[in-house]
UniProtKB/TrEMBL annotation, chain A:
A single BP term in Gene Ontology: ribosomal large subunit biogenesis
PANTHER family associated with the record: RIBOSOME BIOGENESIS REGULATORY PROTEIN, RIBOSOME BIOGENESIS REGULATORY PROTEIN HOMOLOG
Biased composition annotated in UniProt, kind: Basic residues: 318-343
Family statement: Belongs to the RRS1 family.
Lineage of producing organism: Eukaryota, Metazoa, Ecdysozoa, Arthropoda, Hexapoda
InterPro entries referenced in this protein's UniProt entry, alphabetically: Ribosom_reg
Record-given protein name: Ribosome biogenesis regulatory protein
Native source species: Henosepilachna vigintioctopunctata
Biased composition (Basic and acidic residues): 289-300
GO cellular component terms given for this protein: nucleolus; preribosome, large subunit precursor
UniProtKB/TrEMBL annotation, chain B:
Primary subcellular site in the record, as a coarse category: nucleus
Superkingdom, taxonomy of origin: Eukaryota
InterPro entries hit by this protein: Brix, Rpf2
Keywords: Nucleus
GO molecular function, one term: rRNA binding
The UniProt record lists the keyword Nucleus: yes
Family, per entry: Belongs to the RPF2 family.
Protein name in the entry: Ribosome production factor 2 homolog
Segments of skewed composition (Basic and acidic residues): 287-298
Localization: Nucleus, Nucleolus
Length: 343, 317
């Protein structure tokens, strides 16, 4: 009987133990083990909202959280029992936005297209002249370069040019070019439109480039080129409206004022009394061509002698038909027109 | 924007390192908090700031001077502070006739304000007022939210998110069970009072594996009421909560686990081509030289025919 009593006691204790960690809730808690978070949406007891009540409520909720935590897989790290937490469910904002992938530089893009891979280069190279290992770049490279090039050859065509100075300027230009490319890559990666450059290489540039350069340079003042003087018949470069400030391809309408009537009358006048444009250069060249053609074919010259457009510019080809009889003006004796008989 | 994508290059290696550290990261560290005072501040509010600073400590900075900042009118000074000190969370205490015992809690996203809440300190008892041993520095607390109101209004939902953000410390993959010794409880009552209580957890023997929890209050004990608030726009919150692609778990196909814990994989193999199977080589089956020549000619003919056809097609085009 004693044994049976003991067993019964043990069972009772066991049930008590379980009771000590069980908590009954009307609504189950939303637990997020990843952030050690428990949200209890059960209605609070309005009447007894004092500190003891709050402590007991929190105790119950922490107990529920712990019950779940102790079920997780454990691990032993340096004599401490550690549980692996699942990833948190509660979404929290980040500190900074998600990093974007780096934009490729122009060279990197080209290399990727062509499949060019970077080669690992040794940091030191053997210099035959100095008979020692010289760094490819960086620390002590300049010293090695100075040791190597203590004297420079003077070319025959420019005996008074300072070769050392020339070397320095060439290097400075290379550095400047690299900086320019770096900035261009930055602008490209941020999608910023930059003005096209003026003339980079005067030997290769065309008149169009020159025009672009002039337009860009003119608009590069504080007042976006508003007060810059213009040459007669100066034209603005086309297709650069997007990259130069202050240039717009849209037609600017004059301000509405008393001039409106005059301007409209002028337009009307120009339409009603339209006269052909006389381009002297074109006319001269055409005349020249005509005479050349006549020299080649003298027969036509005789025929053409009477033809229209002598001295005038005619748009008809030289092989025009002979005018039909009875039509057209007769170039004859009579000063008057028509066929009036003289008496 | 990476460091090399700057117009002005960093001149020193150290400067470069600092800039790299400030760039957006895929996995971010704990959010740091900045504690500072407004124009005027009562002893009560100052003590509260101190207490929260102590609770948040390794990831917190406190400023000692007064600042002429009215945050709901102009946020920029706070944004510059947060940029300067690299903090994503801030807490400002102030006191005025219109709004006595004022506390503003807020957070930043990408150095600009995400959301903030103005709270009135109704009752307050400090950490010092409780005669008990405190928790260790840098312990990850259990956060308990009580009351159905937390899920009812948009404001309180956001405030809950802010409190979690402020106190949860850091995302961790594993935790020492004996190290769980701090619990923070936030209770919202029906008249929208927010009661903050902080407890130390004592683990008692229960007879089972899971211990029985007992709590001891260690302070601070604060009763808040909500004053003004500024909620984030939906788009901004969505962008701020974006998870990087690298951290998203992609499901692996064709792998399954059965009840015993063994993994099964399914493999797909294309159709077997039996007609091209290499059988045993025998002399009798070998092609004679004449046969081989014939085959070659046939191949050539088909090739040339197809060429001609191609040419024709091109011409017709």
């Amino acid at each position: 009987m004693v044994v049976l009593n003991e067993i019964l006691e043990k069972i009772e204790k066991g049930t008590q133990n379980v009771a000590s960690i069980t908590v009954n809730k009307h609504l189950e808690l939303d637990l997020d083990l990843g952030t050690l978070l428990g949200v209890d949406l059960n209605i609070l007891d309005k009447n007894s909202l004092d500190n003891d009540y709050l402590r007991n409520l929190t105790r119950d909720n922490v107990q529920l959280l712990f019950n779940k935590l102790w079920e997780l897989p454990t691990d032993r790290v340096e004599e401490a029992i550690v549980v692996e937490l699942p990833s948190p469910l509660f979404k929290l904002p980040r500190i900074k936005p998600v990093p974007k992938p780096k934009a490729l530089t122009k060279w990197q893009q080209f290399a990727k297209e062509k499949g060019i891979q970077k080669k690992k280069k040794a940091k030191l190279t053997w210099d035959d002249q100095l008979k020692k290992w010289v760094p490819r770049f960086g620390f002590k490279k300049a010293k090695a370069e100075m040791d190597k090039n203590w004297v420079l050859e003077v070319p025959a065509n420019a005996p008074f040019e300072d070769q050392f100075e020339k070397k320095i300027t060439v290097k400075a230009e290379r550095v400047a070019k690299n900086e320019l490319q770096r900035l261009r890559n930055i602008a490209k990666s941020k999608d910023i439109k930059i003005p096209r450059f003026g003339i980079l290489n005067p030997e290769k540039s065309t008149s169009k480039d020159l025009q672009t350069a002039i337009t860009v340079a003119k608009s590069s003042t504080a007042s976006v080129g508003k007060f810059q003087q213009k040459l007669p018949n100066e034209k603005e470069a086309r297709g650069i409206a997007t990259i130069t400030p202050g240039v717009s391809r849209k037609r600017k309408l004059p301000p509405v004022s008393g001039d409106e009537k005059n301007t409209n009358l002028n337009i009307l006048d120009s339409i009603l009394h339209k006269r052909p444009k006389l381009d002297i250069e074109q006319a001269v060249s055409r005349r020249h061509n005509l005479t050349e053609a006549q020299k080649d074919n003298p027969e036509k010259r005789i025929r053409k002698g009477k033809g229209p457009g002598k001295g005038k510019m005619s748009s008809k080809p030289s092989k025009s038909k002979k005018p039909a009889s009875g039509k057209g003006q007769r170039k004859g004796k009579g000063g008057g027109g028509g066929g009036r008989k003289r008496r | 924007m990476s460091v090399l994508q700057r117009v002005v290059k960093p001149t020193t290696r150290k400067g470069k390192k600092v800039l790299i550290r400030r760039e957006p990261q895929i996995i971010e560290g704990p959010k740091r908090a900045l504690f500072f005072r407004g124009r005027k501040c009562t002893e009560k509010v100052r003590q509260l700031l101190k207490d929260f600073y102590n609770l948040k400590k390794p990831d917190a900075i406190t400023l000692s001077k007064k600042n002429d900042i009215t945050i709901f009118e102009n946020v920029t000074p706070v944004e510059t502070f947060c940029k300067k000190y690299e903090t994503a969370l801030f807490m400002m205490g102030s006191h005025s006739k219109k709004r006595p015992d004022n506390l503003v809690v807020g957070r930043m996203f990408n150095y600009s304000l995400l959301d903030m809440f103005e709270l009135y300190l109704e009752n307050f008892e400090s950490l010092k007022d409780f005669d008990s041993s405190k928790v260790l520095l840098g312990v990850k607390p259990c956060l308990i939210f009580n009351g159905p109101k937390w899920e009812e209004t948009e404001e309180l939902k956001q405030l809950k998110s802010l409190f979690i953000d402020f106190f949860h410390r850091e995302e961790v993959s594993s935790i020492r069970l004996q190290g769980l010794e701090h619990a923070l409880s936030f209770t919202v009552t029906d008249d929208e009072k927010i009661l903050l209580r902080s407890y130390k957890i004592h683990m008692k023997k229960s007879g089972c594996r899971t211990p029985r929890v007992e709590l001891e209050e260690i302070g601070p004990r604060v009763d808040f009421t909500l004053r003004r608030s500024k909620l984030p726009s939906e788009d901004l919150m969505k962008e701020a909560c974006k998870k990087p692609k690298e951290l998203k778990v992609t499901k692996k196909k064709n792998i399954s686990k059965d009840g015993l814990g063994t993994t099964h994989g399914r493999i797909h193999i294309g159709k077997q081509q039996i007609d091209k199977l290499q059988t045993r080589k025998m002399k009798g089956l070998k092609k004679s030289s004449e046969e081989r020549k014939k085959e070659k000619v046939a191949v050539k003919r088909t090739l040339s025919e197809s060429n001609v056809n191609n040419v024709k097609r091109i011409k017709s085009l």
